[in-house]
Amino acid sequence: MNECKKFQQFITDAVDNRLDETDKEFFEAHLTQCMSCRNDYELDILTKDFVKSKITRQTTPQDVALRIKEEIEKQVITNRRTKGVFSQFPLARAAVIAMLVVGVAFLLYFLNSPDMQNTVQAADMMDKSIENYGLFLAGTIQPQQIGQNVEELRDYFYERVDFPVALKPVKDCEWVGGVLSDYDGLPLAHLVYKLPGGIVYVYQANWQAVLEGSKISLSNGAVTSLNQTGWYINGTHDDYSVVMWLYNEETVCTAVSSMEEEQLRDMFATETQ
Q1: pTM here?
Q2: Which of 10, 56, 154, 200 could serve as a FRET partner for 23 with CA atoms 20 to 30 Å apart?
Q3: Radius of gyration of the chain from Cα atoms?
């Protein structure tokens, strides 16, 4: 068995922190030597984090809970008034109880439905950036345009989006790829820098559209930090870094990479063309 096959067998246990010291030593040594295996490992981590971020406990709104309680109390009063009838006809009593349970369940679903609450869940730009980074690592998303430098991508983005695309030359970049897409009619720009140490992915969107939050949104903390300093660093992930910044006060950019946060920030801190 070669080292890459052995490494692949350990990925799941490594993501879940279940490796013993001997296997962990081999795993970490191979991680620094094989970029292909490192990309596989990072993709597994991203997948696990993304799934965890989507599993949340939903709390029933107080007004919904109150309305359900009132409905149950009404049914209890009705049951008391018809107790004599139910004692004579047990099947009828069971049928009414079953109908009550189904009715309350339907009421809970209906009152919590998006149509009832008149809300639309916008995609979170931070989550989408991390998700797209994993898709690029896996090869699921491929660059539509590739060049040796950002100058070769300038015409590709020109007039195809409604915001200035931040095209930053990066030292020692092997190649840079560009992708255009739209999210429910909202144009988006994607850059992928191939460096000797791995991939740097940059997701860009119209800042005003993100502030409106109807299709793509950001947390209040991220918006506040970007408005005050022009930067936002998400330090909640151990295996990759997420850095956001504003370009020309019109474009919000999100970079994702396995490099250190400060190194990633410094890469884009100088003036972007």
Answers
A1: 0.60
A2: 200
A3: 26
